[in-house]
Amino acid sequence: MVVVHKLDRFARNRRLAFDAFHRLGTAGVGFVSIAENMDYSTPAGQFMLTMLVGMAQFYSDNLSFETKKGKHERKAQGLHNGLLPFGVTAEPSGLPVLDRVARACDVATRREVVPGDGLVSAFELAAAGKTDREIARALTAAGYRTSGNRGANPFTKDTVRVILRNRFYVGELPDGNGGWVPGKHGALIDPALFERAQRARDINRKRPRRAGGRRSPWGCPAWQHARSVARASSFTAVLMAAAGLAAPAERKAMGATNLPIRGRGRGSSSPVPGWVCGARGGTGAIRYRLAPPP
User: Fold this and answer.
1) Rounded to whole angstroms, how far apart are CA atoms 265 and 272?
2) Rounded Cα distance, 75 and 199, in Å
């Protein structure tokens, strides 16, 4: 038996409610609502059940409608909705301002942790070309923590990215369609600093993540060493020696050792850190790494 305080505590959606009642009835499970106190197994009870479920959904839908209307009105007045982002607090009039109140103190350096200063520092680091991950580490090391309904947590590159892209700090509010509209609170961060940070982040995103050819087997020092010490007349012999297809004596002459490459897939790493020989899984895989140059 399922016992609830009120029917609208059980469900406020007609489809979900009737589906749940059908499954309970099929399984032979009873349903009791203490506030309504009626028998839902009778035709009259079924009729009242339908009416009460409909009223519960109407209440939920109307509450959502009125909430959205209130938020739209606040936005039209240039006022923010919801939680304030990191480094911002509300003054007595309700307008957002930089949070200049010390939230903690670093005992070792006797430096106060002021969220507003941390916000400015994050944009200055971004304008200087620091990555989101580097900024997150710097803020966390300085004693700053995130704000919001998820508690005070160390910063990550994801939380820093949200902060640096938020145009709320330059006096704007989201319009609900992916754009921004002017807000009543004005700029909290120097707009010029904000734009410099965006340009620096664009440069960081376009910067290559890895040097070209590092994971290519043809640029691997082991392969180059094999070619330099090869006694064979063709490069095919070098490949055979590296792949373990040549005789042991030939592999020794070529500089190969019988140490299997760890990992699977293209560009697997060898047991020696820093050595990549481009191993491939499956038939014909390179099963031997080449000894480093003497």
Assistant:
1) 17
2) 29
What pLDDT, in 10s, does the model give residues 154-163? 999 999 999 9
The span from the CA of 251 to the CA of 274, in Å, is 22
Distance CA 4, CA 193 (A): 56
Write down the pTM of the prediction. 0.57
Q: Return the structure tokens found at 210.
A: 């890895």
Helix (H) or strand (E) holding 8: helix 7-10
pLDDT tens digit sequence for 109-150: 777 888 999 999 999 999 999 999 999 999 999 889 998 888
- Residue 247 C-alpha from the chain's centroid: 51
Tell me whether residue 91 is exposed, middle or buried, using C-beta atoms within 10 angstroms of its C-beta: 0 to 12, 13 to 18, 19 or more: exposed
Burial of 82 (0-12, 13-18, 19+ CB in 10 A): exposed
**Helix, strand, coil abundance in the chain, percent, nearest 5:** 45, 10, 45
In sequence order, the β-bridge partners of residue 98 are 88
Contact 220, 277 (CB under 8 A): yes
